[in-house]
C-alpha cells in the first residue's frame, strides 16, 4: 500500500504520521490514522497537514502519542504554540544557585552518556533496559531544565546589566 504525498509533504505533522506508518501501516492514510486520534476527524487532520489550520496542543499530544513521536510536541512548542513558544517555566532563584545546579547536572552527564552508550551497544533493548531508559530520559530532561534556568538568568542579566540578588 504505497501513497505519494505531494501537497502535505513539507508539513511536520504529515511527516510524523508517515514516519510512524513504517511501523504501523494503518497510519499511512488519514482515514485510518484518525482511529488513533480520538475526537479528530479526517477533515481536521487533512487541514492540519495542509497547513490550513493549526492543531490545538491537545491534538498534537494525541499525534505525538499515536505516532510515537515525542519530538513532535517539542517541535510544536518551539514553532507553533503561540503561548509556549520558546518558553519554559523557570523557578525564581539566585544566579549562584542556578549555576551550582547546572554544574551538578554537567557532572551527571558523563554517567548518563556512559549508561546510554552501554544500552545502545548491542542495538537491542531488554526489559531491564526499558526502565533504565525511562530513568535516563528523566535525568536528561532535568539537565535540560537546568540549562533553561541558567539561560534565562543570563538573558535577564544581560538585559538588566546585573544579576538578581
Shape, per Cα inertia axes: flat
Query: Helicity, in percent?
Result: 55-70%
Q: Strand-and-helix sequence, N→C? A: HHHHHHH
What is the CA-CA span between the terminal residues? 62 Å
What is the residue-averaged pLDDT? 87
Strand content: under 5%
Largest sheet: none
Number of DSSP strands? Answer: 0
Helix count, per DSSP? Answer: 7
Low-confidence stretches: none
Radius of gyration: 20 Å
Structural class, please?
mainly alpha
Total number of domains: 2
Characterization of this structure:
- By secondary structure, this protein is mostly helical.
- It has 2 domains: 68 residues; 66 residues.
- The protein contains 7 helices and no strands.
- The chain starts with 11 loop residues before the first helix and ends in a 5-residue tail after the last helix.
- The model has no long low-confidence stretch (mean pLDDT 87).
Task: Annotate the secondary structure layout.
Layout: H1 12-20, H2 30-33, H3 42-49, H4 57-66, H5 71-79, H6 95-120, H7 127-160
Helix pairs in contact: 1-4, 4-5, 6-7
Task: Summarize this structure briefly.
The chain is mainly α and 165 residues long. It has seven helices and no strands.
Keywords:
0% strand, 165 residues, mainly alpha
